[in-house]
Amino acid sequence: MLALADPELDNGPRTQKSATMRMCAVSREVRPIGELIRFVVGPSGDVVPDIKRKLPGRGLWITASRLAVAEAVRRHHFSRGFKTNVRAQPTLAEDLEALLARSAIEALGIAAKAGQVVSGFSKVEAALSQRQSRATLAALIHASDGAADGIRKLDAMVRSNDGDQGQALTFPIICCLTSAELDLALGRSNVIHAAVLAGPASRTFLSRSQTLVRYRSADADKIAGTAASKSASTSKT
Questions:
Q1: CA neighbours within 13 Å on the CB side: how many for 140?
Q2: Given this model, what pLDDT does residue 223 score?
Q3: Residue 231 belongs to what H/E stretch?
Q4: In the 3-class helix/strand/coil scheme, how is 96-114 assigned residue by residue?
Q5: Residue 169: other Cβ atoms inside 10 A
Q6: From the CB of residue 1, how many other CB atoms can be counted at a distance below 10 Å?
Q7: Measured distance CA(177)–CA(186) in Å, rounded
Q8: CB–CB of 63/53 below 8 Å?
Q9: What pLDDT shows up at residue 162?
Q10: Which of 15, 127, 149, 237 could hold 133 in an S-S bridge, CB 3.0 to 4.6 Å?
Q11: Strands 137-142 and 193-197, sheet pairing
Q12: Which residues contact 115 (CB under 8 A, 6 or more apart)?
């Protein structure tokens, strides 16, 4: 439940394990914690992102979006929220994006070591083609800089297989990491396509990649929504 004594700050990770909602210090909206990033003050007085929500100290929550974090820095929301003079680096929004990407890469590497990842076009194609193998898949991964032809072919297989079973898309398609980042995670070169198999390690990767995608896309969705509203208003006049 949401702490009522101080809606902006939590009382630390040990006391907030059951919390599912927090207030964004920028928008003042109460959101699920999965849509927010927790920040704490480090020993040197710098604002530190706590993407795993485990760092000690009271935490301030910001909507998981580059614009929201940049605005928090620009408008000194961190000092006001923590009620003390803290340092928030001007590059905090960009640094946080890099940290989220690195976290997703590390999680994918752990999933690979646990035997929960197959990589390479042929292996992924085979996994999608075989009903028994496909039942164990948790996600399809494409490098964000991969060739469109291969991506289209594998995506079409997903849609075709789902159509044959009369079901909606049963697992996500992730395109938030570059080929170089996939190479780093999987310890091999020129990785463009991969598939994640169901398991504890893969669930961690899916959660972290979802946070990265949300962080990058939240602002685009907001801007697109604003543009659509303006367009609708213009068409009425």
A1: 26
A2: 38
A3: helix 200-236
A4: HHHHHHHHHHHHHHHHHHC
A5: 12
A6: 8
A7: 12
A8: no
A9: 58
A10: 127
A11: antiparallel
A12: 197
Query: Is there a contact between 197 and 156 (Cβ–Cβ < 8 Å)?
Result: no
What parts of the chain have a pLDDT lower than 70? 1-6, 14-18, 132-134, 161-170, 219-237
pLDDT of residue 151: 95
CA geometry: angle 2, 219, 11, nearest 5 deg: 20
pTM above 0.85, yes or no: no
- pLDDT at residue 8, rounded to an integer: 79
Q: Which tokens go with 201?
A: 């390690």
With tokens 């929504």, the residue in question is 225
What local confidence, expressed as pLDDT, does residue 133 receive? Answer: 67
Q: Which residue has the tokens 């940049």?
A: 70
Angle between helices 66-74 and 200-236 (to 10 degrees): 80
SS3 label, residue 173: strand
